[in-house]
Amino acid sequence: MKSLIPWRPGQKHAAPARRDGWFDRWMNDPFDSLFPSLAQPLFSRLPSVDVSEDKKEIRVRAEISGMTDKDSQLTRHDGMLRIRGEKRNEKEERKKDRYYRECNYGSFSRDIPLGKNVDWEKVAAKYRNGVLTVTLPKTGATTKAIEVKIS
Predict the structure, then answer these.
(1) Alpha-carbon torsion 7, 10, 15, 17, what sign?
(2) Residue 38 backbone dihedrals phi, psi, to 5 degrees
(3) Residue ranges covered by each domain of the chain
(4) Which helix (H) or strand (E) holds 23?
(5) Chain centroid to CA 46: how far?
(6) Is the pLDDT of residue 60 over 80?
(7) CA 142 to CA 116: how far, in whole Å?
(8) Which of 99, 68, 104 is nearest to 85 (CA)?
């Protein structure tokens, strides 16, 4: 009976092969394995966004904690809502025998496709406790869903 444990040339006994090579790490998480120092800061800047819809309106909630309403900007273009923000954090400490300064900057931009039946003149936005809530009323003109038969 043969062993199910992989054998490698030059190996005396069949022992479990270690699967910690570059290729295996790349298959599990390609971006993090190529640029580990960039992966976490890049994805931590993107805000979490929830989009919900009912018959009257579309509601977008974005978590942009640590920012003020002046740090963020809402724009529309081609049926999309764009949420932009920039966070600046500067810390400076001067004491008798030392000087400490730390600067941290980051920005994000998130596009949310909303379609053509949004009344852009009546859009309202609120920012409270790190959550931006945008309410987008729908227009009376709605598009009907069309079923397409596959042959």
Answers:
(1) negative
(2) -95, -25
(3) 18-46, 48-137
(4) helix 22-28
(5) 4
(6) yes
(7) 9
(8) 68
Kind of pairing, strands 57-63 and 49-53? antiparallel
CB distance 110 to 47 below 8 Å: yes
Helix (H, G, I), strand (E, B) or coil at 133: strand
Largest CA-CA distance found in the chain, in angstroms, rounded = 80
Write the CA distances from 133 to 59, 117, 123, integer angstroms. 7, 19, 11
Q: What is the pTM of this model?
A: 0.58
Element (H, E) at 34: helix 30-34
Mean pLDDT for all residues in the chain: 77
Q: Does domain 48-137 have CATH number 3.40.50.12780?
A: no
State how far Cα 1 lies from the chain centre: 51
Question: DSSP label at 97?
Answer: S
The answer to whether 130 and 63 are in contact (CB under 8 A) is yes
> So what's the pLDDT on residue 67?
79
